[in-house]
Amino acid sequence: MIPASQLVFFACIWITLMSNACAAGEIKKPHQRCFSSVKPTRKQETRMRKDDSTKVWPLKYKQLLHIEDHSFAVRPGFGGSPVPVGIDVQVESIDSISEINMDFTMTFYLRHYWKDERLAFPSKTNKSMTFDHRLIEKIWVPDIFFVHSKRSFIHDITVENIMLRVHPDGNVLFSVRITVSAMCFMDFSRFPLDTQNCSLELESYAYNEEDLMLYWKHGNKSLNTDEHISLSQFFIEEFSAYSGFAFYSSTGWYHRLFINFVLRRHIFFFVLQTYFPAVLMVMLSWVSFWIDQRAVPARVSLGITTVLTMSTILSGVSASMPQVSYVKAVDVYLWVSSLFVFLSVLEYTAVNYLTTVKERKQFKKTGKISGMYSIDAAQAMAFDGCYHDSTTDTDQTSFSLHSEEDSMQERHTGNLSTDSPRIKRRKSLGGQVGRIILETNRGIDTYSRILFPIVYITFNLFYWSIYM
């Protein structure tokens, strides 16, 4: 038999061991909980995906698209046939067209279509995935640039306006919203009755025809425009899309796409601002033909005013146009109109000159000129432009020749009675000659009243028939 003291000893040892084992088990339990939180079970992962799938897909898209498994520094199908890249464009607006800078500014949506099998992914629903601009830097995209562009930028409000859509079979849609300012080679020979043909050209910068083939995705329907597009000075007659090639001596042939649009200028603005004022100035210059030729200040001031006004119109048109080396249609019209205004001034100059020459000849023949202007008081306006109410005032304004005649009469008072009939005959002869001179010069004004309008109307008929 085992003594009772030994039983008690063994019992104490057993109790001590059991207490230590329980304490060790309590210490290990927290570690098990931490381990289970780091590595959840499959049921917990499935439940978490159902609760919030947005926290899982951003961590998986690189693996799903195999981005880390491929080098996207090279094009799809590198070493084989060129990759076809389809293009379509949705024009949002034509912001401005500048004649001085010879350029235009356009905002549009540029969409690229190509297939990259490296981005293919399995999908039971066959649905595509859409990404923003952050994925563009990690995959291959076509390097399209705009030929003859001056400025261009991608809109970035509120974020960069870039969209990337990847289909399960590897087809990719890449869309971007761009504003481009490009050159437009304009011809102003018919300005402002002109029609301008501008084009925006798209081309790959690095890949020639052996690596990349650009084409319009839907043919002629690849170029679409918004219905509300309108311009202040132009009417958009046509939008068209076509393709071609460009050759560079150092790199070879490249595919090039063209967005062509035809602009016809609205003429009504220039009719109001240029043509109509020019016609009014020409017609105003004709008013001088109805003013008496002896009213020198009136006719001279009217001619100078119309000439200066035409010069102002010419300078205003030239300031808003580029400095081209050829003659524009508006220049032809304004310069011919200025010529008519200038000829009206020359017409009065010729009339006044002929009158003066005939007066001098008559003065040499008769020795007197006062009788010629004693016809009526209005003829004195030929010298000072003022109207005189009496023959005495008329005689005083005729180069003071009456005063000389009076002094001669005072010195020969004794011969007045005998020479009075001769003096009367001379005065009557001078009056007849003066009437002939006035009638001849008035005939020039009469012919000008008819000739100037007929020639100007004929010019307008030829001008509008040629340029319209």
Automatic annotation (TrEMBL):
The chain crosses the membrane at residues 267-290, 302-321, 333-355, 450-467. It comes from the Eukaryota. Residues 67-266 form the Neurotransmitter-gated ion-channel ligand-binding domain. Residues 402-413 have a biased composition (Basic and acidic residues). Residues 1-24 form the signal peptide. One of its GO terms (molecular function) is chloride channel activity. It catalyses: chloride(in) = chloride(out). SUPFAM superfamilies: Neurotransmitter-gated ion-channel transmembrane pore, Nicotinic receptor ligand binding domain-like. Keywords: Cell membrane, Chloride, Chloride channel, Disulfide bond, Glycoprotein, Ion channel, Ion transport, Membrane, Postsynaptic cell membrane, Receptor, Signal, Synapse, Transmembrane, Transmembrane helix, Transport. Pfam families: Neur_chan_LBD (PF02931), Neur_chan_memb (PF02932). GO terms for cellular component: chloride channel complex; postsynaptic membrane. The keyword Iron-sulfur does not apply. It is found in: Postsynaptic cell membrane. Residues 274-464 form the Neurotransmitter-gated ion-channel transmembrane domain. Its main location: membrane. Residues 396-423 are annotated as: Disordered. InterPro entries: GABAA/Glycine_rcpt, Neur_chan_lig-bd, Neur_chan_lig-bd_sf, Neur_channel, Neuro-gated_channel_TM_sf, Neuro_actylchol_rec, Neurotrans-gated_channel_TM, Neurotransmitter_ion_chnl_CS. It is a multi-pass membrane protein. Belongs to the ligand-gated ion channel (TC 1.A.9) family. This is GABA(C) receptor. It comes from Balaenoptera musculus (Blue whale). The lineage of its organism: Eukaryota, Metazoa, Chordata, Craniata, Vertebrata.
